[in-house]
Amino acid sequence: MPVLAQADLRLDAGPLDYTLLAIYFVFVLGIGFLARRSVSSSLDFLLSGRSLPAWVTGLAFISANLGAIELLGMAANGAQYGMATVHYYWIGAIPAMVFLGLVMMPFYYGSKVRSVPEFLRRRFGKGAHLVNAISFAAAQVLIAGVNLYALAFLLNLMLGWPIPLSVVIAAAIVLTYTALGGLSAAIYNEVLQFFVIVAALLPLTIVGLHKVGGWDGLVARVTGGPGGAEQLSAWPATELTGIQNPVLSVIGIVFGLGFVLSFGYWTTNFAEVQRALSAKSMSAARRTPIIGAYPKMLIPFVIIIPGIIAALVVPEMVALKAGDDSGGVTYNNALPALIGDLLPNGMLGVAITGLMASFMAGVAANVSSFNTVFTYDLWQDYVRKDRPDEYYLRVGRLATIGGTVVAIGTAFLAAGYGNIMDYIQALFSFFNAPLFATFILAMFWKRMSAAAGWSGLVAGTIAAVGVFVLAETGVLDLPGQGASFLGAGVAFVVDIVVSVVVTSFTRPVPEERLVGLVYSLTPKSDRVHSTTGDDAGWYRSPLLLGIGVLVLTFVLNIIFG
Amino acid sequence: MAQKAGLFDLRLVIAMLFAIFGVVLLVVGLGFTEEADLAKADGLNINLWSGVGMVVLSALFAGWAALRPVIVPDPGGPGTVGPGPGGPGTVGPATGGPGTAGPGTG
Description:
Chain A is built from 25 helices and no strands. Chain A is an all-alpha fold.
């Protein structure tokens, strides 16, 4: 951390840039105040009253993930590893998002659960529910802290604002609009943030490409650079995985990242699923992740390519890439450094606004999913049952405040890590990889018992932690993201094995309790969505939209493979 | 009777923000761009072009909102937000312990 601060990345922001930033904040807070008028129950506050159209929830779905870690981390990976970084999108997100919409959403939305942990409670009872609710709530507060810290750090670096002040200001803004307008305010702001982020990154990418002489110039300069031509192709990504054998590297990407890690993250992370649960109909809920998949497919072009360009044109980044003294600049600085070098006042302000927007999107997603799980899954289920709804609305508001305050505290836990992605991937593999295994079994295997629910989760999490510790202590030699991929894979397998073994020794859950939750016990009429009114038209068919984005992604993989 | 949604129309909010951003950048790009600014962006007047793009985006959202206004078919009662099909039960947890949301069979 102190090393970073020495690097001179101060941006030349003027009154014009600050004015644009201030205008944006007025809109952000305005949305909070306007959304407040529509909050009259806890379900309005924590789940937007299940009333939002699919394009709003779809954009919010990816915007919630487009936080600081994503933006800076992916640009950093682009600068360091090149085009292989697209795997985090094309392999590591799109298939899982389509799977969520087509296969899993009928059970999430159809069962009318209010959160992902609540699904586990209905399916397995208290054991699995408590494990998941507590681990999710803790992880969200931790990640919110990481996001806040990254924001403060960047503001300090770019604008010279003191770190503690930045943490408090950013937290106060997020807190104001999420505590006022609840999930609606968070989601509406996420959609606005999405467009601001694109408005910041697209011009940056255009100027950057112009600077290196267009796409041909980019290809020529990367080929001649220290990374070589292999940084221009997505496969086999041996540098990214840290696995030298190309075949094993591809298997690691497809199974570790593509299957376990990404399916675990996108299909069971409540911060994401919550956006779909707030949709106004089953059809809109199913389309939410699939509509989100289209921009998700294209967004690497304005995040990773600027990262690659930064490693070509920013002198400190060029030195870093060549292995010379970079004066304390790290790959995580790729995006802010390129912004500082290429954008004049005006667009500079938009870019700073875009970065701020991204950071706040991440924090707001964490906070608004934390408060729901805290209110419904922890407080209502285990602390104070059977109170009037106004009581839980108040608890939701207080949880929002409490979660933000704890996040400010945990903001400084993130300090000791070089590449933020490593840290966050490790966290995800602890909780999400076994979750996906449990959910798939839970939704498609009616025999699975309650004891198998929690024991599989616990065993899988322990296995992931085990791999992480082995990698950290050097027993397993996997640099890059390889350890996370392996940890996720091992956790998945251990969860399945433990669940199957435990089920064979314990009693199954009575079938009448599983209607709507398990595939074979849910009537087909409950799984299909309406195709009339706002859900009519072939272009609103989840299946068609899903196939479309998979085909396009496949084509992109061939073009850039 | 067609009625405006209880929630404000997000498309108009997006249109307003980008109208302001776009016009500001257009003015800066046309009137206040110096050689140094141009040199920084490799000769492109990026403020001008980004401004044009944002004004177009703003117009698209305003046009969409004007052509397809948000309509709530029938307000379910004071304070309820657009009643989704299937009526999710706006005040789910009021009636009892966990699991009252119903298994979703009907």
